[in-house]
């Protein structure tokens, strides 16, 4: 299945209602969908949902050799994957333009803005550094993947804790979480990418949905561009610009960028505050040793959901069978031994028997020969 | 022996929790948790696929298993294969010739019994997508621990010390075995006993399926 095509009536309807001041889902121009963040049981795993868009992010770490040019810095690697789970038009194990674009944007936003203290990831200069790998998986593509995956990357990086390390002479000991408290990643600032859809060169929609994204970047049937596009603004909580990216038609009014930056500044503050708050509350929950699991995102009051506590099963009827099978087993085992077999069944522990190959090659040959099988 | 102690005791399957239609873009999707193990499955299809992979007899089933982080491994491909073959027996593929059905599985948490959780979740997602099926199926995992006892739905620490881990899949119509996937060493009798125990446990999973379908079918 290839790309999703929009019908002309969909396009023109959306263009018309946007120019009249409405949006398809009833939001205001600068209103975002509901942001929801939930954590998994491991450090650095989270699912971020922005409306219907859902993204899973997982941070993992390993010790590697640093790059030659930066011998005292750790490595940050971001990998975005879009599987057919996101939407049916995506193919499995295939790099699309969207994957590359998302990967590049996230790298620009988190690597090039130097928000992570990479020097703190160094263990031994020129020999051993931590390499952090962020795996971003798109679960559901409901529009505005950029913002959602950027929040997911930021949250998982901020939530992640790497194991503690001690150096004794030349050897490096990596402690498990049970041995020593893990160390959180140091973030200098929290950049977030935000997307704005531009309609007719003057209207800015924040957090565009899938259909709004596709309409604003598509051209009309005559091939005339309607002056729409996607503007990505990366900004941290100090209202510092980290990234700007424009997709679609060229801008002819620079004021629209200013407008976007002003509204991104407020939004980024909101998002970063929420991310920080939710990480702190998650941390206190973990310190109270309450279990946090992705199972928590399954709602129970939904019509299409079902929760069943302990499912009990009585295996009493096996009482008799077990006893008989046990006695039978002894006989069976005796039988096996009496037959000429290439294996010996040696009773080792209750319920199990080990199969040990018999010593002596003559029987081996006899068994494998065809004449033996014919008998 | 440890056996007698266990027999009189009631066995408990881990609490199950699921939500259908978890993802909006897929034709069918489910998130299922069995204890602490969680998986999400999305089903898309029947849809148009490349002509090279089309079959004139039945729909082509494609199963993709994604781990939570890191690179794909050979073990994942193996799991994919087990799940694909199980699904193929359940789906009435001959109704949809020259099409493809894509099943994508995303692991979220692994605390033991991930394969059976993925299989059950796939079955629920297939039910949710409305693809015609011959039967539904239920998967149960059990382990043979060090002393030789059979443990249903073992937790992760027990799996690491277990002598063998077995996963059985049963169909709903004849309650017959569809798939058997085993690791480790065990005797034939242990296998038979595990088979019978998991068979009894699979009834609970079928009733779970029935409960969820009847819950939303009432509203429709």
Automatic annotation (TrEMBL), chain A:
Pfam families, per this entry? RNase_PH
For this UniProt record, the keywords arranged alphabetically read as follows: Cytoplasm, RNA-binding
Q: Report domain Exoribonuclease phosphorolytic positions.
A: 31-163
Q: Which CDD domains match?
A: RNase_PH_RRP45
Entry's InterPro entries?
Answer: ExoRNase_PH_dom1, ExoRNase_PH_dom2_sf, Exosome_comp_Rrp42_subfam, PNPase/RNase_PH_dom_sf, Ribosomal_Su5_D2-typ_SF, Rrp45
Decide whether keyword Cytoplasm is in the record.
yes
Q: Does the keyword Cytoplasm apply?
A: yes
Where is the protein localized?
Cytoplasm; Nucleus
The record's similarity note reads:
Belongs to the RNase PH family.
| Protein name from the UniProt record | Exosome complex component RRP45
Automatic annotation (TrEMBL), chain B:
SUPFAM superfamilies for this protein: Ribonuclease PH domain 2-like, Ribosomal protein S5 domain 2-like
Query: Origin, by domain of life?
Result: Eukaryota
What are the residue boundaries of the Exoribonuclease phosphorolytic domain, all occurrences included? 13-131, 137-196
| Keywords tagged on the record | Exosome, Nucleus, rRNA processing
Residues passing through the membrane, by range: none
InterPro entries, alphabetically?
Answer: ExoRNase_PH_dom1, ExoRNase_PH_dom2, ExoRNase_PH_dom2_sf, PNPase/RNase_PH_dom_sf, Ribosomal_Su5_D2-typ_SF, RNase_PH
The listed locations are: Nucleus
Q: Which Pfam families match?
A: RNase_PH, RNase_PH_C
Q: Does the keyword Transmembrane apply?
A: no
Assigned protein family? Belongs to the RNase PH family.
What this protein is called in its record is Uncharacterized protein
Per the UniProt entry, what species is this protein from, by scientific name? Chilo suppressalis
């Amino acid at each position: 299945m290839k790309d999703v095509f929009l019908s002309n009536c969909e396009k023109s309807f959306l263009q018309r209602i946007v120019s009249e001041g409405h949006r398809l889902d009833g939001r205001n121009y600068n209103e975002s969908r509901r942001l929801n963040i939930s954590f998994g049981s491991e450090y650095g795993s989270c699912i971020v949902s922005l409306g219907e868009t859902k993204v899973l992010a997982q941070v993992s770490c390993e010790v590697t050799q640093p790059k030659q040019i930066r011998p005292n810095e750790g490595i940050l690697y971001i990998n975005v994957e879009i599987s057919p789970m996101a939407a049916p038009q995506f193919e499995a194990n295939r790099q699309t333009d969207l994957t590359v674009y998302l990967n590049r944007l996230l790298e620009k936003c988190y690597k090039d803005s130097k928000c992570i203290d990479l020097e703190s990831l160094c263990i031994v200069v020129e020999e051993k550094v931590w390499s952090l790998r962020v795996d971003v998986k798109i679960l559901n593509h409901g529009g505005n993947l950029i913002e959602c995956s950027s929040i997911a990357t930021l949250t998982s990086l901020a939530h992640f804790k790497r194991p503690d390390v001690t150096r004794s002479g030349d050897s490096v000991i990596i402690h498990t979480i049970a041995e020593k408290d893990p160390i959180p990643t140091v973030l200098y600032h929290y950049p977030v990418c935000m997307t704005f859809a531009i309609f007719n060169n003057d209207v800015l929609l924040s957090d565009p949905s899938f259909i709004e994204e596709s309409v604003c970047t598509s051209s009309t049937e005559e091939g005339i561009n309607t002056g729409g596009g996607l503007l990505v603004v990366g900004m941290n909580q100090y209202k510092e610009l980290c990234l700007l990216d424009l997709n679609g038609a060229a801008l002819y009014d620079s004021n629209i960028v200013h407008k976007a930056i002003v509204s991104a500044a407020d939004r980024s503050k909101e998002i970063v505050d929420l991310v920080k708050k939710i990480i702190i509350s998650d941390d206190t929950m973990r310190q109270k040793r309450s279990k946090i699991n992705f199972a928590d995102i399954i709602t129970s009051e939904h019509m299409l959901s079902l929760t069943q506590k302990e499912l009990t099963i009585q295996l009493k009827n096996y009482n008799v069978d077990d006893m008989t099978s046990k006695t039978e087993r002894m006989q069976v085992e005796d039988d096996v031994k009496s037959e000429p077999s290439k294996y010996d069944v040696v009773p080792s522990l209750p319920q199990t028997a080990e199969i040990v190959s018999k010593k002596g090659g003559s029987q081996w040959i006899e068994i494998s020969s065809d004449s033996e099988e014919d008998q | 022996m440890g056996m007698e102690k266990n027999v009189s005791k009631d066995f408990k399957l881990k609490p199950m929790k699921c939500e259908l239609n978890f993802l909006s873009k897929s034709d069918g999707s489910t998130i299922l948790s069995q204890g602490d193990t969680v998986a999400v499955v999305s089903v898309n299809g029947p849809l148009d696929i490349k002509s090279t992979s089309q079959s004139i007899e039945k729909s082509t089933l494609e199963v993709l298993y994604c781990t939570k982080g890191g690179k794909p491994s050979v073990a994942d491909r193996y799991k994919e294969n087990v799940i694909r073959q199980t699904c193929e027996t359940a789906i009435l593929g001959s109704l949809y010739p020259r099409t493809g059905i894509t099943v994508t599985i995303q692991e979220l948490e692994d605390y033991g019994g991930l394969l059976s959780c993925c299989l059950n979740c796939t079955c629920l997602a297939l039910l949710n997508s409305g693809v015609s099926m011959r039967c539904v199926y239920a998967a149960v995992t059990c382990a043979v621990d060090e002393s030789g006892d059979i443990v249903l739905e073992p937790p992760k620490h027990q799996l690491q010390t277990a002598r063998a881990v077995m996963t059985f899949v049963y169909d709903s119509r004849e309650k017959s075995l569809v798939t058997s996937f085993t690791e480790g060493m065990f005797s034939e009798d242990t296998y038979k006993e595990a088979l019978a125990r998991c068979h009894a446990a699979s009834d609970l999973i079928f009733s779970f399926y029935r409960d969820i379908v009847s819950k939303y079918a009432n509203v429709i």
